[in-house]
């Protein structure tokens, strides 16, 4: 996975990009990672253009869900919403983490702050406890800096980056 450009971003945005890059590099078996706002918009991705480029080049099956970071963001947002609703119905308090184990991979969703979510798509052989631990570290470090201003900046930078990769 390649790191997105952080040129022209604030220190907080660059730090968040660094934390995401560190998560991807430290944890074996991660296929894609997304940070999603409370309204379901993608804020940060491990590599937003990777799967679209693979499809265009005809190099085979994309390594993320249906081939795009936006799809992972949609899945993460939906699962986050569903589990929050379930927790409210059951009166069990807030949702901290959701894990879905599938035959060909795993999906992890963890609350960050203000309804923002961290979603990780892992390979079938990833160590779930290691993924959960590193996600908790990311959330602990990112939660206090993910302000409305930073979320807006991240959305704009991702839109610019995605538009540039389509050209």
Sum this structure up briefly.
The chain has helices at residues 11-26, 50-57, 69-90, 128-142, 148-166; strands spanning 30-36, 42-45, 97-102, 105-111, 117-122. The protein is α+β, with helices and mostly antiparallel strands. A 5-stranded antiparallel sheet has the order 2-1-5-4-3, sandwiched between helices.
Helix content: 40-55%
Amino-to-carboxy terminus distance: 20 Å
Structural class: alpha+beta
* β-strand number: 5
Strand order of the largest sheet: 2-1-5-4-3
Shape: globular
Radius of gyration from the alpha-carbon trace, in angstroms: 15 Å
- Strand proportion: 15-25%
Average pLDDT across residues? 81
Largest sheet: 5 strands, antiparallel
- Outline the low-pLDDT stretches: 50-62
Helix count, DSSP H or I runs of 4 or more residues: 5
Oligomer: single chain
Which sequence of SSEs, written as H and E, runs from N to C? HEEHHEEEHH
Topology:
Blueprint: H1 11-26, E1 30-36, E2 42-45, H2 50-57, H3 69-90, E3 97-102, E4 105-111, E5 117-122, H4 128-142, H5 148-166
Antiparallel strand pairs: 1-2, 1-5, 3-4, 4-5
Helix pairs in contact: 1-4
Written description of the protein model:
There is one protein chain. This protein has 167 residues and is α+β, with helices and mostly antiparallel strands. It is 48% helix and 18% strand. It has five helices and five strands; from the N terminus they run H-E-E-H-H-E-E-E-H-H. The protein has a five-stranded antiparallel β-sheet with strand order 2-1-5-4-3, sandwiched between helices. The longest helix has 22 residues. The radius of gyration is 15 Å and the shape is globular. The chain starts with 10 loop residues before the first helix and ends with a helix. About 8% of the residues have low confidence.
């Amino acid at each position: 996975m390649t790191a997105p450009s952080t040129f022209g971003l604030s220190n907080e945005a660059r730090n968040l990009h660094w934390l995401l890059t560190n998560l991807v590099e430290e944890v074996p078996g991660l296929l894609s990672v997304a940070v999603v706002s409370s309204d379901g918009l993608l804020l940060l991705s491990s590599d937003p253009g990777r799967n679209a480029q693979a499809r265009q080049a005809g190099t085979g099956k994309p390594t993320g869900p249906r081939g795009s970071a936006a799809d992972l963001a949609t899945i993460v947002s939906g699962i986050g919403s569903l589990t929050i609703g379930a927790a409210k119905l059951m009166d069990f308090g807030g949702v901290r983490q959701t894990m879905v184990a599938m035959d060909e991979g795993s999906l992890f969703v963890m609350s960050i702050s203000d309804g923002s979510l961290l979603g990780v798509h892992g390979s079938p052989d990833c160590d779930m406890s290691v993924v959960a631990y590193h996600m908790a570290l990311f959330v602990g470090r990112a939660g206090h800096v993910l302000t409305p201003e930073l979320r807006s900046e991240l959305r704009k930078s991702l839109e610019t980056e995605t538009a540039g990769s389509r050209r």
